[in-house]
Amino acid sequence: MTKPLSGRVWDAYQRGKTWYTLTDHAAYIASDTFGRRSLKRYGMAELQAPDLQDEAPGSVYFADEIGFYHTSYMGRTRTQTKPVGFRRITDARKVYRLIASQREEHQNARSERS
Fold first, then answer.
1. Distance CA 90, CA 9 (A)
2. Listed residue (97, 8, 104, 9) closest to 60, CA to CA
3. Which pLDDT tens digit goes with each residue over 7-44?
């Protein structure tokens, strides 16, 4: 199912204002949308097994974000889970392998210390 035009335009705008960084300790997602800056850090211990969306360009997801929103229908609060990761990037396969490798090294180092 394709997104409506307004959803695709918003998605493209957000991606243009988002930067990704991967180190041997964490994945970072920085954004600057309408002057509102955000920097999120996902440490190797927090990362899930990476999920590769192998398209052109591809995406690599490594965490889930849970959002809460209030509905007017009977005043209920609902939750929504969405995947977090590096979206529509070049060399997604390479990034996927790097994340998987760093995550494995981190898990091995943790098990050696215990």
1. 20
2. 97
3. 677 667 677 789 999 999 999 999 998 889 999 999 99
Residue 83's pLDDT is 95
> Which residue range forms the structural domain that includes residue 13?
5-113
The DSSP string of 8-68 is HHHHHHHHHTEEEEE-SSEEEEEEEETTEEEEEEEETTTPPPPEEE-SSSEEEEEEEEEEE
Tally of domains in the chain: 1
pLDDT in tens, 61-78: 999 998 877 777 677 788
| pTM to 2 decimal places | 0.80
The strand pairing partners of 79, in sequence order, are: 68
